[in-house]
Every structure is written in C-alpha cells, then in structure tokens.
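Q: Hi! Curious about what EAL domain-containing protein looks like structurally. Here's the sequence.
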Amino acid sequence: ENVAALLKIAIERELISLVFQPIINMRTGKIEAMEALMRLTMPDGTAVPPSLFIPVAERTGMILELGRWAIRTACRELMSSEHIRTISVNVSPVQLKAPGFAASVAAALGEAGVTGDRLALEITEGLEMEMHSDVLRCISDLKLLGIKVWLDDFGTGFAGLSWLRLIDFDTVKIDRSFLHDCVTPRGRAMFQDIVELLRNRGPKILVEGVESEEQLELLRRLDIDHAQGFHVGRPARAESLRPLFEAPR
Ligand code: G
Ligand code: G
Ligand code: MN
Ligand code: NA
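A: Let's find out. The predicted structure is below.
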C-alpha cells in the first residue's frame, strides 16, 4: 500500500539514515556504546517514524535490504572510529529467520575489518517470536562470530522469560516503562524484582528511558551496569557523537 510504495522510493533515493543514541557505563560515567536507530526523512524534511515504516518493511520483506544496509553502515562507523567500542543495531525476527543472515553479518564485519565483539544485535521480545529452531541456530552462529546479542524491551511481552531460558544474552535492556513506573512504591518494587531476576541470570543490565538525574541516581544505587535515555543523550548524527568517545585507558 502507500507506506510500502513510499519505502521503496525512500530506499532508492537514499532517504534512510542512521542516528545513534549514547549508552553509558554507570561505573565510569563514560559513553561506551551507542544504539543505531533508523530514520526515514522525506525530501520535504518530514520524518516518518520507525513505528510506521518498520512493520511495513517487515511485512513486505524490505526489512532484509534495510537491515543489511544498517549493519553495513554500523560496521563502517565502527571502522572509522576505534574509540567507539560497541554499536548496537536492532534486528527484526524476519532477519533472524532469513537463511544466511549470520553469514551476511560476518561479511559486513569482514569488509569493514571490524571484530565481531564490537557489534551488538538487539532482539526485541515485544514481538512474539516463536521459538523457531532457525532463529536459535542463527543466534548461536552470531555468538560464534563473537557478536553480542542483546534482549531489547525486556518485560513488554510474554516471551521474555522463555527467551532468557533459551539464550545466553550478553545484555538485557529493561523497557523504559518500568523505570517510569518507579514514581510509585509498587512500581519501584516491581523494577527491583526485575533487576534481581536478571542479576541472578548473569547478563549485563541496561536500563533505557533515563530522563532525569533522579532516575540516574536510582540506577546507581541499584548498581545497574548501563544506562540510555534522553538525560544521557538524545539520538544524534554520528559526527556529533564521535568526539564524546575517549581513548580506552
Ligand atoms: O528511535 P525510535 O523511537 O524512532 O525507534 C523506535 C523503534 O523502531 C525502536 O525501538 C526499534 O525497535 C525500531 N527500530 C529503529 N531502528 C531500527 C532498525 O534499524 N531495525 C529494526 N528492525 N528496528 C528498528
Ligand atoms: O525499542 P528501542 O529501545 O529500540 O527504542 C528506542 C527508542 O526509544 C527510540 O525511538 C528513542 O527515540 C526512544 N527513546 C530513547 N531514549 C528515550 C527516553 O529517555 N525517553 C523516551 N520516552 N524515549 C526514549
Ligand atoms: Mn532497541
Ligand atoms: Na527498547
């Protein structure tokens, strides 16, 4: 339909771009990674939100082309700045089920001369994804390449716990709604229970949606590993973020 036609034109005319949102290490306070977020901007400057075009791209299969482009672009960004330790890229279940996905990621890394451990792929638990054996095999292939596998939007779907049982995630991102609920005692208790559950399972914990210093302080008290959100930094063009990364000590 409309959006599908629009998306096709956008791909042809290169109206798709990536912005990056910083992720800090709570212990050092330093930016350690950034999440790549896709943007579609019309020639007249209007932004089409991912919530509109990603589902269409998934339905039409165009996500395969878009996704390959995003991973190649992220790898090139990693190549151009050795100080950026990690870039995370969102991947759709459609990509994980497509034959040859892990090989295409390996090729993108190889072209850029970047090691797999600098790339993280975010898998969302929001979408209900059947425990497809192809998906599990793909994830284990990605891990063999050294690629980090993160679970995104933890707590928003029903599948989160099943995912945790089956996959050894490097990082779990707690959905921002749980942090925002911390304004009530009940919400705060829930948040702490989730943190406790994850801590016992072993992945690094990243909390998204940090919008204030008070929230950042709460995360420090709870000994959270990583934070992301408007208070830490808004999504921005790569050029403006590069200087914020410092040489590793
Ligand atoms: O930045 P923003 O709020 O617009 O992103 C909304 C959502 O769109 C993200 O949470 C993510 O799930 C999805 N998204 C953004 N970029 C990509 C991408 O490159 N690939 C996929 N599959 N999803 C993306
Ligand atoms: O689902 P995913 O985590 O990939 O979504 C990233 C989206 O979250 C982006 O669209 C980004 O703009 C949005 N986002 C990032 N930080 C914040 C924040 O602090 N508050 C809110 N409300 N949204 C945020
Ligand atoms: Mn994400
Ligand atoms: Na998320």
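A: A fun detail: Residues 37-38, 49-51, 54, 70, 90-92, 124, 235 surround guanosine-5'-monophosphate (ligand 1) (CB under 6 Å).
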